[in-house]
Amino acid sequence: MAILGNIIKGIINLKDTFSSEIIHGEAQQDVLKQLLEKAKNTQFGSHYKFQDILDSDNPAKQFADRLPFFDYNKMNDDWWHKLHEGESDVTWPGNPSYFALSSGTTGKTSKRIPVTDDMIDAIRQAGIKQVFALKNFDLPADFFEKEMMMLGSSTDLDEKDDHLEGEISGITASNIPTWFRSYYKPGEEIAKIDDWDDRVQRIAERAEDWDIGALSGIPSWIELMLQKVIEHHKLNNIHEIWPNLQVFTSGGVAFGPYEKSFQSLMGKPVTVIDTYLASEGYIATQVRPETDAMQLNTDNGIYFEFVPFKPEYINEDGSLTNDAPALTLSEVELDQDYALIISTVSGAWRYLIGDTIEFTDIQRAEIKITGRTKFFLNTVGSQLSVNKMDTAMRDLEKQFDTTITEYTICAKRGEDGEFYHYWYLGTELERKNNEQVAQALDKSLQEANKNYKVARSKALHGVVVKLISPDTFYDWNANNKKKGGQVKMERVMGEEKFADWETFVSEN
């Protein structure tokens, strides 16, 4: 009998009994006031007169009217650079204990995003919320006695001056509570290995020593780790070595594109729970099994705003126009893509995080990630967002009985001077299917997207598809950034980077 598991499950059920349901709109008003109050005497708070905003009749409106939008470059150039020059109380009281390094999906150069002690606490509280939400998934008591594999970046953080630096997954893993460490795998020794291939090799070698009940990480890198374990032990599927694996907590990207390839590595179904942890904070987590949408963490260190993701509000580089309207949680609508804007306890203010989302349930504050602001392809009016591209990939998977976990696209002129969409798809399909897949992809997009259909009848001359091994995408990331952690593939490339990509593909 799972005595400990029953005790833990009982505590989770009891906690839910005494918890009141969050009224998300009210929670957001409170969070904004808390942020403004704590930061009002910082350099940033003094500059933008936070006390006046707090004293106004409508702090949310005054906040939006007074502060401009910031992306990382503007925030860093105007304010955060001072932190690296020894200044304190810049955009948040004191100095951050950590900086999260993130190249995201856009390049080699790492962003250095402040992570304060308040943010560490907010992330920890959001993690506790996620644990208590497991009650809704009706997991057996013995699940709560199993170990959890968290595959992120190295926890061996770099010491710089008075702070530590590393990817957010490494920072959070290095701050796990003491009581959780006996459950946490691969353990501190292996987690500190910087080289991703070496770390995964050690995991494969030790795999049979562990009783894994849950996995956590970015789907593409989790898949590669699972493949390594299966290969090392000559297994048919991962359940032959981890028979009690029941949950996968997916983070960083939408799980949908990876579902088919992930399930092929399983011996039986597992519960997939989506989460949204970014370098800037723990944004949202799935709290119920009836949907794969995630609930915004509205009561814990982050204030959200939402800009309608429409061409007239988006500059060519993915930034927002100065006149773009920002809506509060009480003003959003269903079936609308929004660019996500956050203000946080790490001193990010009206910050364009770079993701687009849509609401699936406004009362519950539940969302889905739909893409990236920089990966909105509107060359010659095609208006393709990542969610439309992902949907097209799922159509192709069904039509050709394959999996397509990775892809990238560029709009550019061909040798004839006409505009084409050039696609590279990661699949094991034979290369002779290039033309057939191109026709099916073009048809799928035209049927699903009226703007794309109009573009195809005018300036967009055609579609070119090249089928390549999925490994090429992982090798590209390794060559340009590094493997594992928060690294994700760029879905849309500009012409200059795409030229580098095509050279890389031809040479490899």
CATH superfamily of the largest domain: ANL, N-terminal domain
Strand content: 15-25%
Q: Helix content range of the residues, please? A: 25-40%
Q: Architecture of the largest domain in CATH?
A: 3-Layer(aba) Sandwich
What is the end-to-end distance? 53 Å
Radius of gyration: 23 Å
Keywords: Coiled coil
Protein name: GH3 auxin-responsive promoter family protein
Organism: Psychroserpens luteus
Domain GH3 middle: 298-369
Tell me the layout of helices and strands.
Blueprint: H1 3-18, H2 24-39, H3 43-47, H4 50-55, H5 59-66, H6 72-78, E1 98-102, E2 111-115, H7 117-133, E3 147-151, E4 158-160, E5 163-166, H8 168-173, E6 184-185, H9 188-191, H10 196-206, E7 212-217, H11 219-232, E8 247-250, H12 259-263, E9 271-278, E10 281-285, E11 294-296, E12 302-308, E13 338-344, E14 351-361, E15 366-372, H13 386-400, E16 406-413, E17 419-426, H14 434-448, H15 450-456, E18 460-468, H16 470-480, H17 495-507
Parallel strand pairs: 1-5, 3-6, 3-7, 7-8, 8-9, 17-18
Antiparallel strand pairs: 1-2, 4-5, 9-10, 10-11, 11-15, 12-13, 13-14, 14-15, 16-17
Helix pairs in contact: 10-11, 13-14, 14-15
Coiled coil: 431-458
Domain GH3 middle: 298-369
Domain GH3 C-terminal: 389-496
